[in-house]
Amino acid sequence: MKVYIRSIINHLIPIPCLLCGVTTSFECRICSPCQKNLPSFKVACQTCGLPVYSANTYRCGHCIAKPTTINRTVCGFSYQFPVDKLILQFKYHQQLGIGETLSQLLAEKIQQQYLDDALPEQIIPVPMHPKRLASRGFNQAALISKQLSKQLSIPINTQSCQRVVETKPQEGLNANQRCKNLQHAFTRTNTVSPHIAIVDDVITTGATINALVETLSSADVTRIDVWSLARTPAN
């Protein structure tokens, strides 16, 4: 019945692809040919999400040399054109449908990556400071998490931590400045499940994720995974 209803909607209300304008399905606003051309890393380090040279390489040299408590990172795309433009429209121009579409595609990749692995028990969106939340009107990580929760049937936990320091925007800061900017930015406020996934929109240097991982790490958390729409290529 649902398939029949969707086919009627597609017939009556054609949905143009966000990238090429060709009519696409009601479920996803990026057509299949455009999806295939979206930038992504063919093989990536399971810890940081950056590209590696061989499918048999599970950890990059940096992550081997400096181990973290992050078990697995899954990024939907490489933060390059047109993904970067789509995410900017989502974050700064209230194009929430774009975020929903990219989150759907990320969920599909997560399902592929976890075929032989257990999915996390909770999703934790990177929290936003209340002042910035009031200014923007929404937390993009929370909206991404909502879509992932719907598609993967994993509950969202928004009570486990808070952003208690209103840091200046990370854009334009180098790796060291980003880390310093995020010192004591988060605090843990509640219990979490043993296996969690932290969700953000874009991973650049990993400073935000690492700060939150440090805040959430404890004896009762046995595994932390990281999911994001996109990963910025290394310089």
UniProtKB/TrEMBL annotation:
Coiled coil spans: none
Superkingdom of origin: Bacteria
CDD domains in the cross-refs: PRTases_typeI
InterPro entries for this protein: ComF/GntX_DNA_util-trans, PRTase-like, PRTase_dom
Transmembrane segments: none
Family per record: Belongs to the ComF/GntX family.
Name this protein carries in UniProt: ComF family protein
Species: Zooshikella harenae
